[in-house]
Amino acid sequence: MKNNYLCIIQARISSTRLPGKVLKKVNGITLLEYEIKRVKKSKKIDKIVIATSDKKVDDIIERFCKKISINCFRGSEEDVLDRYYQCTLKYPKFKNIIRVTGDCPLIDSKVIDKVLVFFEKGKYDYASNVLEETYPDGMDIEVFSKPALEDAARNAMLLSEREHVTLYIRNNKKFKKGSIKAKKDYSGFRLTVDNQDDLAIIRFLIKNTEPNANFLDYISLLTKNPKIMLKNMHIIRNEGLLKSLKEDKIVKIF
Known about the structure:
Layout: E1 5-10, E2 25-26, E3 29-30, H1 31-39, E4 47-53, H2 59-67, E5 71-75, H3 80-90, E6 96-101, H4 109-122, E7 126-128, E8 142-145, H5 146-155, H6 159-163, H7 167-171, E9 177-179, H8 196-207, H9 215-223, H10 226-229, H11 239-246
Parallel strand pairs: 1-4, 1-6, 4-5, 7-9
Antiparallel strand pairs: 2-3, 6-8, 7-8
């Protein structure tokens, strides 16, 4: 079915630990372009949009999108939930939204499609592979219906819920939710880019695997190179989310 899945990749230049990480290059190609190419391998995604902030610093993201002929939407820097919602209003034909973050250059299209098939079969409002984390960090896929996103955008009141797009949906019992698990627990592996150690590992993996490598290929290569593998395994997963929850407050009053 066409117009079924709109994939929105959130990306911006500002980053506390590694500024400009999405436009860092490996073999002359930006990490964001690597990610887009891998998302395009999905058999079920109908359209991809990069959603960045409306701040001047992110003009470079918009220029990058024009250069590679990918759609770009600009919205609130801090209220990422509203950024997603406003983006969907520009593409009203799409029924379901896929959320991917721009720091996952090795995202696995087969994992994406597995989540989407699960979402369809279960007739869920929200499905992912993160409610119980068994996939490596950097393989996070979330899909949700447009009505669920609209509900969240209208009713989410907490800072954490505005900053983290799906938190309101995940925490609310009125939505039907489900999550897939990997065959083994690979959650200790990091295939994302948050700091220099992550970047070193991503560069190693890109340079030493085929373009169509899947997440198990990356894990296999890392386990054969333990010194490299251990470079970033000490980093806490979802550190940004934990910080938001610790500093949470009501930011939207109706």
